[in-house]
Write a structure and sequence with these properties.
Number of strands of chain B: 7
Strand content of chain B: 15-25%
Helix content of chain B: 40-55%
Mean pLDDT of chain B: 85
Radius of gyration of chain B: 16 Å
Oligomer: heterodimer
Order of helices and strands of chain B: EEHEHEEHHHEEHH
Number of strands of chain A: 2
Largest interface: A-B, 93 and 79 residues
Distance between the termini of chain B: 33 Å
Largest sheet of chain A: 2 strands, antiparallel
Largest sheet of chain B: 5 strands, antiparallel
Strand order of the largest sheet of chain B: 2-1-5-4-3
Number of helices of chain B: 7
Shape of chain A: extended
Helix content of chain A: 55-70%
Low-confidence stretches of chain A: 1-18, 647-666, 676-783, 786-948, 959-980
Distance between the termini of chain A: 47 Å
């Protein structure tokens, strides 16, 4: 069989017409075989399709011809052409009494149709009939079709018959019936849940083949719920024993092995059942050991069983003897000449290192050999193993190897994977900051556009915050070395955009910090970057903002900011940019250069990127403003819940319920609007799940408002807007109930240094306020055990897990804005790492991760108060910090504060849309001033609507600000994967 | 479970395509092309396994083997064992060889409905059903006999391979 014939020989044979098909089909295949181009092939196939169309449609075509046409049609579709016109003929053919035609029909429909195709309904009846046939071959054909064609809706139509067939006298039918039932279970578990006991019953079928078939569904079932099948452990062990002792009929032998596929399935099942269960595992030790002793290393299948034994051993509760046997088997695999064996050996090694890391060390050389192997599959598997066995002592070697390999591959999917693994390992085990930065540089240089933007932000954050050591000099050394390396790299052509963003940001923040480089030098380099990447708006935005920082640091230090001519021309050019974002940034820089030192210090404080930012989610800073508006006769805002009759939503719990409710689809019917609903119905709240908020007529809500004691004025004030923005009020409406949150979080929130008023950071950084006040506590408790487990299971050695935790703890302190929490973390970081584990919120990193494409400027109304005083174009992130007092002086101060915030945090290139919106809205505000009074909300909601929901987006925005950047939204999940 | 079985020739022409989860025709073509690209780039004397998670999702692998002008490809997920799949493929080809006596590419092309019949005996709904080559041959012969009996017109001239057994 190995010596199959060559094409020439085949064609020669083909031309003799010895294949039982017509000359036409033969010619078709021959001509397709001889085509030189895809076009030529397409032409031939299209002609064939035309022929088939007319012939199939001809009612006089004899059946045997029809059959051939159908097969030709299948062939045509296999080549990638549409054959849907012929599906109906396939369906018709299943109705035929003749087995040959029926089978051809079934074959055609199973290949043509998916289970949701409209034509299936025409086959169900035939299938039902065939399942009842006396001829078991017909039944088998029908069962084959059932496996492929029946969907959730049609399962009930055939289920009773399939169940009946479980008791059929022919074992072939029983086997297929089990498989069909398994298929139903896969497709719609609910539809056969009452029949699952049948699988257990069939386990003791008289025919071992049926028993073997039953293992497939049982494997699936056990995968989903291990505990329900613990009682079967002994049965499985007994079956395995019988199989291994050759008690099955000879016909089940397969290459001199007793039923190896059944053994493999059983070993897989035992591996699942014994995982983490000492008692169950103890039953298995003997039999697994016996099988390993008996194995036959000469055949593939023998080795497959052996490999499965190792997998089982690595999964169940460890047993020293078996581990030893497994290690022996692995070394046999690794010593083999066959790449397949080596592959399995490496894979098995990866499984076993979790339990006994020292085994991998015994095979170092073999592993290195595999790493050098030309076989890509083997290489990748080896990298996977290395990834699993990385610890702080070997991280440098491993990561360097990975990077070298990464540079040389073209497969983007795998490149991304390996790049993110490098980053992950580097973050976990980095022996030194220098090494870390160098490694990240390399990864970015070669795969910068593939890795998650979040990684770039992490890098920035890390450099900004240092590694968490209390030693400030170490941090500034780190920054200096980063600046140094970036100035070195910056000239290289073809750097990925993400990397350039990091470079610009770092140079802007820390380029002049250590005094080694002059402001004009750094700004010159930044200009070069902007010019060299004139098509990349994001990079330009980063560069220009970095320029602004450099200048303001200069001014703040009492020097005059000398703007190089090239910088000047760059700014000039950007002032007229089509991108409103770039324009705005350019205006900002221009404005900053003209300010005095005191003002600049407030706008751009040094090293403020790590400051914690609080968000006032209820926008209570607007209260005063709203008050004013109401005094002028504006209509108050009535929250959504009040409108629908739920007047009192003040506790978090119900609010959460409510929110989760809003996100899911509702299947209940909407209530009729109740125009005369009583305004005070606090108890209704408990059953909020049943309530559908239906906006009541506004005149009603007004009454409502006056009747309900709603604490937050902001709610009232914004109600006006709903008149204009009905569509958005849902998104907007909800935060208003959360008014108590920010006030509490605010109180214990650290203040920004420059703030002249106590409320500095209102809208933008909200997530911290929330996270800290209650969200974060929960995940800390919940997730850390998982993390713990992951660390323990991935890296058994205590030294490694230590490292892992301590490294994560290093990163956390500054990103956790809660001051109390912060000190707590710092304290624990120095003490025992195990303690840290629980207090660490690793999901903080995750939280930080969800990149958003938008940044949400929380409020715009300072424009109105300030536009007369300053002709700066405000950043979209300007925040009203004055607590809404409405007087000018504090507002200016707050504006400065805001600008500082926005300056350090406004690297968000993607916010262009928002920015322009806000600019426009600023103007329209002015125009509208005499009109409706309050229109901050429309803009806000506009922007909010760009995020998925306001909570998410605000949270994301918070993190964005904290890191000083906006994640640009690629590969959002990648990093999540990395963190497990 | 097994996701699919593909037989294609060394120039990337599909000869037998069976996916156990429905794939629309265009998607099938795309997958076949990508798989062909992967297989072409493999050197000789390397392992028969390839990770194809970029095509099929997490943890999906394929096993391939060349028999003369044909690539045989099994695609499956982590609930199957690579080596066992390789062996099953061997049995599948052995069975084809028995049924067609000295199977060659054109046998597969012209009789791919029979090849499907054989495959159905081995794998049903993505699960391995039978691994015994002679059992499969027996069943297939029985089916064929029935078909012949039912089809007295004898449209299909006998194939040398079939008469031999």
């Amino acid at each position: 069989m190995e010596q199959l014939k060559t094409i020439g020989r085949e064609l020669a044979m083909g031309s003799q017409g010895g294949f039982g098909q017509s000359k036409e089909f033969l010619d078709l295949i021959k001509s397709i075989g001889e085509t030189r181009s895809k076009n030529e092939e397409d032409r031939i196939v299209l002609r064939e399709i035309e022929t088939l169309k007319t012939r199939l449609a001809n009612p006089n075509t004899p059946k045997f011809k029809l059959k051939e046409y159908l097969i030709r049609l299948l062939y045509v579709e296999m080549l990638g052409h549409d054959a849907s016109f012929g599906y109906i003929y396939a369906v018709k053919m299943t109705h035929d009494e003749n087995l040959l035609f029926k089978r051809t029909g079934y074959l055609a429909v199973t290949l043509f149709l998916n289970e949701d195709h409209d034509l299936i309904i025409l086959i169900v009846n035939t299938i039902q009939k065939d399942l009842r046939s006396d001829n078991y071959l017909v039944v088998c054909a029908a069962l084959n079709a059932v496996c492929r064609l029946i969907n959730e809706e049609t399962i009930p139509a055939v289920l009773p018959q399939v169940v009946e067939l479980l008791g059929h006298q022919k074992e072939a039918v029983r086997k297929k019936a089990v498989m069909a039932l398994h298929r139903f279970y896969q497709r719609a578990p609910g539809s056969v849940s009452h029949l699952i006991s049948n699988f257990r019953k069939r386990l003791s079928d008289s025919d071992p083949g049926v028993m073997g078939a039953t293992l497939c569904p049982l494997f699936d079932l056990i995968t989903t719920d291990v505990n329900a099948y613990k009682d079967l452990v002994i049965s499985f062990v007994n079956i395995l024993k019988q199989v291994a002792e050759r008690r099955l009929p000879k016909s089940f032998d397969y290459r001199q092995m007793p039923a190896p596929f059944i053994q493999i399935k059983l070993l897989k099942i035992l591996g699942l059942l014994g995982n983490g269960d000492k008692k169950a595992s103890e039953h298995m030790y003997t039999i697994v050991g016996d099988i390993m002793k008996k194995f036959d290393s000469t055949s593939n299948i023998g080795n497959a069983v052996l490999y499965e034994c190792i997998c089982c051993i690595s999964s169940i509760h460890p047993n020293p003897k078996l581990l030893e046997a497994a290690a022996d088997a692995i070394s046999k695999f690794l010593k083999s000449d066959s790449h397949n064996m080596k592959y399995l050996g490496i894979d098995a090694l990866g499984r076993l290192t979790k339990i006994s890391p020292e085994i991998a060390e015994q095979h170092q050389l073999a592993v290195i050999d595999c790493l050098e192997d030309p076989d890509d599959t083997l290489k990748r598997k080896t990298f996977e193993l290395l990834y699993k066995m990385t610890k702080s002592s070997n991280v440098e070697v491993i990561v360097n190897r990975m990077i070298d390999y990464m540079i040389n591959i073209n497969d983007n999917h795998y490149k991304t994977e390996i790049a993110s693994r490098c980053i992950e390992l580097a973050e976990q085990f980095a022996p030194s900051n220098q090494w870390f930065i160098q490694t990240m540089n390399k990864v970015f240089e070669h795969a910068g556009d593939l890795v998650n933007a979040k990684v770039a932000h992490n890098l920035m954050r890390l450099i900004a915050e240092g590694f968490g050591e209390d030693d400030d000099t170490a941090d500034s050394q780190l920054r200096s070395s980063a600046v140094e390396s970036y100035l070195h790299i910056i000239g290289e052509p073809k750097l990925p955009s993400a990397f350039l963003q990091v470079i610009c940001w770092i140079l802007g923040e820390y380029g002049t910090a250590d005094g080694k480089y002059s402001a004009s030098y750094i700004s010159g380099r930044l200009c070069d970057v902007a010019e060299a990447h004139s098509t990349d708006d994001i990079v330009k935005a980063y560069a220009v903002t970095a320029l602004g920082k450099i200048y303001s640091f200069e001014i703040a230090a009492g020097r005059k900011a000398e703007v190089l001519p090239e910088c000047e021309s760059l700014i000039e050019e950007l002032l007229a940019s089509h991108s409103t974002d770039l324009q705005q940034r350019a205006y900002e820089v221009q404005a900053i250069v003209g300010l005095d030192a005191h003002a600049v210090e407030n706008i751009m404080p040094m090293d403020a990127s790590c400051e914690d930012i609080e968000i006032d989610k209820s926008l209570s800073f607007l209260d005063g403003y709203i008050q004013q508006a109401i005094e002028k006769g504006a209509q108050p805002y009535v929250s959504e819940s009040e409108r629908s009759g739920m007047s009192n939503i003040s506790n978090f719990k119900s609010q959460e319920q409510h929110e989760s409710l809003m996100h899911s689809l509702r299947f209940e019917a909407y209530e009729l609007p109740k125009s005369s609903m009583a305004p005070h119905v606090p108890p209704v709240l408990a059953s909020s799940t049943e309530l559908v908020p239906v906006p009541n007529p506004y005149n009603h809500t007004e009454v409502h408002y006056s009747a309900t004691p709603m604490p937050s004025v902001s709610n009232a004030g914004s109600s006006e807007l709903k008149l204009r923005l009905d569509g958005v009020q849902k998104k907007w409406g909800r935060p208003s109930y959360s008014s108590p949150v920010p006030s509490t979080s605010n109180n214990d929130a650290p203040k920004i240094q420059n703030g002249t008023t106590q409320r500095d950071s209102v809208g933008s950084a909200n997530s911290k306020a929330r996270d800290v006040s209650y969200d974060s506590r929960k995940p800390q408790v919940e997730i850390s055990p998982e993390k713990q487990k992951l660390a323990a299971s991935l890296f058994g050695g205590p030294s490694k897990s230590d490292r892992r935790q301590s490294s994560s703890s290093q990163k956390v302190p500054k990103n956790n804005s809660h001051s109390a929490n912060k000190s707590h973390v710092e304290k624990t970081a120095t003490s025992d790492t195990v303690a840290v584990k629980t207090s660490q919120p690793p999901q903080d990193l995750l939280d930080l991760g969800e990149p958003t494409g938008t940044s949400i400027p929380p409020s715009l109304d300072p424009f109105k108060q300030l536009e007369g005083l300053l002709d700066l174009t405000q950043d979209s992130t300007t925040l009203n910090t004055g607590g809404g007092s409405g007087t000018d002086a504090p507002d200016i101060m707050s504006l400065y504060a805001d600008m500082s915030l926005s300056g350090q945090g406004n690297e968000n290139p993607l916010s262009t849309g928002n920015d322009s919106a806000s600019l426009l809205s600023g103007f329209s505000d002015a125009a509208n001033r005499n009109g409706h009074g309050v229109n901050t909300v429309p803009q806000l909601t506009q922007q909010l609507s760009k995020g998925q929901n306001h909570k998410d987006s605000l949270e994301k925005d918070a993190l964005v600000r904290q890191m000083g950047v906006t994640p640009s939204g690629q590969n959002p999940n990648l990093f999540k994967d990395l963190l497990g | 479970m097994i996701r699919g079985v593909i037989v294609m020739n060394d120039r990337g022409k599909p000869r037998l395509v069976k996916f156990y989860e429905f794939q629309p025709a265009e998607k099938q073509q795309e997958l076949i092309r990508s798989i062909y690209r992967v297989l072409c780039s493999r050197a000789e004397n390397v392992s028969n396994f390839v990770k194809v998670d970029s095509l099929f999702g997490q943890d999906v692998r394929l096993v391939y083997k060349t028999f003369a002008t044909l690539y045989f490809v099994f695609i499956f997920d982590s609930s199957e064992n690579e080596l066992a799949m390789l062996d099953l493929m061997q049995v599948f080809v052995e069975t084809l060889d028995k049924v067609f006596s000295n199977v060659c590419e054109l046998d597969v092309v012209f009789n791919f409905n029979k090849v499907h019949t054989i495959l159905e005996e081995f794998i049903l709904g993505g699960q391995v059903l039978e691994t015994n080559s002679s059992e499969v041959v027996k069943t297939v012969e029985e089916i064929l006999k029935m078909e012949r009996a039912a089809n007295s017109i004898k449209v299909v001239p006998s194939i040398p391979g079939w008469q031999g057994r």
